[in-house]
Specification:
33% of the residues lie in helices and 21% in strands. It is α/β, with parallel strands linked by helices. The strands form nine sheets. It has a seven-stranded mixed sheet, sandwiched between helices. It has a five-stranded parallel sheet with strand order 7-6-8-11-12, sandwiched between helices. Strand 28 and strand 29 form a beta hairpin. The structure holds 5'-O-[(S)-butoxy(hydroxy)phosphoryl]adenosine. The site of 5'-O-[(S)-butoxy(hydroxy)phosphoryl]adenosine has 22 residues, from helix 12, strand 24 and strand 25.
Length: 675
């Protein structure tokens, strides 16, 4: 865990990343191909050329406050204008201080006085063939009703609301209803376990939980309400007063009188009239939990005005969103991608956002392409792990489908290997669609590095250049920029509007995690992203992956410590160390080295039991791909587990680098032999 040992471990990890024989990074570094924006694309594009991008970039760099203030005034509705654009007291930032606005007003009400009133806001495709389209007027009506229901259930401005939902329109409605009355939401991905849900509800002190009886996932029902019941059992989350339940799958569930209410019952009598609460620009919009290096996931706090502006602008320029587009982001609303680029960014722009409950599954591996064809999807945004899974499924699923409506493709979540990029370009994009590879994080709120499709020539595997207003750099631990093509740490030099404001309830952790690894230089604070990167001779950024103990499994971010804590909470486990190994589809997979309590016997059955235990504690996304029993873990003399040795072993590589700090060298031989 690198927080304990200052920067040293980061250096080790970075050296290791550079020398690692991971095919993705190796091939990325050799990548020289350049793809120009397709001819004709720029005609209607918001940003039409590289010159225009450069001019915007320089303008924003010279006068960031003027740049963002002009856009905020042009693009958003304010009940009251701000008195100060930026208040930067490192590392704490405020944007549009004194401004009053409401993001649900910007996403809904302001479109109702235009022709967009009857435009599709959300198109929803549910897994067993259900579908629904909500126009802006219809969505507005339902959001107002739910906002009134929330109030009726005692939720007031400032109270937190937990949302634990499948991918159904009610998830977006609940988020917007929260925003409308100024109750910050905390959405918990429906794949998280009851235990993980409880932790988040407790940390956020949520007053209300919005859930569903169940959701559909790969031809099966995910029992969400049952998990909520488990999380709340024995006063597990004492702040929760009410639970609101959407009927989705209609299986039998228990409703606790006084606490649990059906969504449709309360909606039936709710008034559709609920003016949007004027919120301060810096009022909290939501908390979203994400994994870090230390044990518990941290509550990333985003506020109203800056987040609205930045998600609005990035979607508009990087995805070149047009009024005729059907835009589809395949993420789940439980992640930041769903928040920023299924709900807030698209709706603020008055776009049509498609929500899909399903996933490719053996009974219908080509289902995504049916959706593209059915709705004539124009913009498609997904993750490299999904693209690699499509490749594996084979091209025959695609040949029978017409994908000619697509005009732009996006990718996010991890570095994309050039092979997957080229396949995406050729097979999905028919060689005519630009690919925007967007690098960003839960913490950044919106895209930081991204091509603009009519402006930026792309290189497979590179997230290319910073969005206008973002001053990105690659530096060493002293904060000095490194030479071209040298590895270093990816940092951001100037605050941007949708920067996370703090860790909920723990401002010190915010400072420690993001602002202290790299010393402030000349009074300038650098935001430390936790990623290693290089910049090439054209100024293009190549993100190489995390330099901390965060791993990325199928685009999901997991802390190794979290999984270790889950493992050691099992009575058979004495100690556990979790590392990742490269995986051809998921990018990385979880490998756990486990020592057992004295009387326990290693067996395959116990391995399965431990995997299941991790699923119970965190959720299926954290299930270890491999568990290796060992007598001892390699440790330094001061007792720190030497993870980089374990990583080499897990990846089937020879142990390279210095092992002189290892306390007991025989452990290595045992690890090599045993497992
Ligand atoms: C981490 C953030 C932002 C939404 C999805 C994940 C990795 C993300 C890219 C990209 C290379 C990427 C980074 C980052 N990452 N996008 N285009 N190229 N790496 O959000 O869960 O907060 O994870 O995902 O390592 O730090 P998140």
């Amino acid at each position: 865990m690198f927080l304990d040992v200052s920067g040293l471990t980061i250096v080790y990890v970075l050296i290791e990343i550079q020398s690692m024989k991971r095919p993705t990074i190796e091939s990325i570094l050799k990548e020289k191909r350049l793809f120009q924006p397709p001819a004709g694309f720029s005609e209607n594009a918001h940003i039409k050329s590289l010159e225009q991008y450069k001019q915007l970039y320089e303008q924003a760099k010279a006068d960031p406050q003027g740049f963002w203030a002009d856009l905020a005034a042009q693009e958003l509705h304010w009940f009251e204008k701000w008195t100060q654009v930026l208040d930067w007291q490192p590392p704490f930032v405020k944007w549009f201080v004194g401004g009053k606005m409401n993001i649900s007003y910007n996403c809904l009400d302001r479109h109702l006085t235009t022709w967009r009133r009857n435009k599709a806001a959300l198109i929803w495709e549910g897994e067993p063939g259900d579908s629904r389209t909500l126009t802006y007027a219809q969505l507005h009506r339902e959001v107002c009703q739910m906002a009134n229901v929330f109030k009726q259930l005692g939720v007031q401005k400032g109270d937190r609301v937990g949302i634990y939902m499948p991918m159904i329109p009610e998830a977006a409605i609940a988020m917007l209803a929260c925003a409308r009355i100024g109750a910050p939401h905390t959405v918990v991905f429906g794949g998280f376990s009851a235990e993980a849900l409880k932790d988040r509800l407790v940390d956020a002190e949520a007053k209300l939980v919005v859930t569903a009886d169940g959701g559909w996932r790969k031809d099966a029902i995910v029992p969400l309400k049952v998990q909520v019941d488990k999380a709340l059992a024995n006063d597990g989350a004492p702040s929760v007063e009410n639970v609101l339940v959407v009927k989705r799958t209609a299986q039998e569930i228990k409703m606790e009188p006084g606490r649990d209410h059906w969504w449709h019952d309360l909606q039936a009598t709710a008034s559709p009239d609920c003016p949007a609460e004027p919120m301060d620009s810096e009022d909290m919009l939501f908390i979203l939990y994400t994994s870090g290096t230390t044990g518990k996931p941290k509550g990333v706090v985003h506020t109203t005005g800056g987040y609205n502006l930045y998600t609005h602008m990035t979607l508009k320029w990087a995805f070149d969103i047009q009024d005729t587009d059907v835009y589809w982001c395949t993420a789940d609303v439980g992640w930041i991608t769903g928040h920023s680029y299924i709900v807030y960014g698209p709706l603020s722009n008055g776009a049509t956002s498609l929500m899909y409950e399903g996933a490719p599954r053996p009974s219908n591996p080509g289902c995504l392409w049916d959706v593209v064809e059915k709705y004539g999807v124009n913009i498609f945004y997904t993750a490299p792990t999904a693209i690699r899974a499509f490749i594996k499924m084979g091209e025959h699923h695609l040949l029978s489908r017409n994908l000619s409506s697509l005009r732009l493709l996006g990718t996010v979540g991890e570095p994309i290997n050039p092979e997957a990029w080229i396949w995406y370009h050729r097979i999905i994009g028919g060689e005519r669609c630009p690919i925007v590879d967007t690098w960003w994080q839960t913490e950044t709120g919106g895209f930081m590095l991204t091509p603009l499709p009519a402006a930026t020539p792309t290189k497979p595997g590179s997230a290319t250049l910073p969005f206008p207003g973002i001053i990105a750099d690659v530096v060493d631990l002293e904060g000095n920029p490194v030479a071209d093509n040298q590895g270093g740490y990816l940092v951001i030099r100037h605050p941007w509007p949708s920067m996370m404001r703090t860790v909920y309830g723990d401002p010190d952790r915010f400072r420690r995690t993001y602002w202290e690894h790299i010393a402030p230089k000349d009074g300038q604070y650098l935001y430390f992203a936790g990623d290693g990167a290089r910049r090439d001779e054209d100024g293009y950024f190549w993100v190489m992956g995390r330099v901390d103990d965060v791993i990325n499994v199928a685009g999901h971010r997991l802390g190794t410590m979290e999984i270790e804590s889950a493992l050691v909470s099992h009575p058979a486990v004495a100690e556990a160390a979790v590392v990742s190994k490269p995986d051809p589809v998921k990018g990385e997979d979880v490998v756990a080295f486990v020592t057992l309590e004295g009387s326990q016997n290693a067996s395959d059955q116990l391995k399965d039991e431990l995997k299941q235990h991790v699923v119970q504690e965190i959720g299926a996304i954290a299930r270890p791909g491999e568990i290796r029993f060992t007598d001892a873990l390699p440790k330094t003399r001061s007792g720190k587990i030497m993870r980089r040795l374990l990583r080499s072993l897990a990846g089937g590589q020879e142990i390279a680098g210095d092992t002189s700090t290892l306390e007991d060298r025989s452990v290595l031989d045992k690890l090599r032999g045993g497992a």
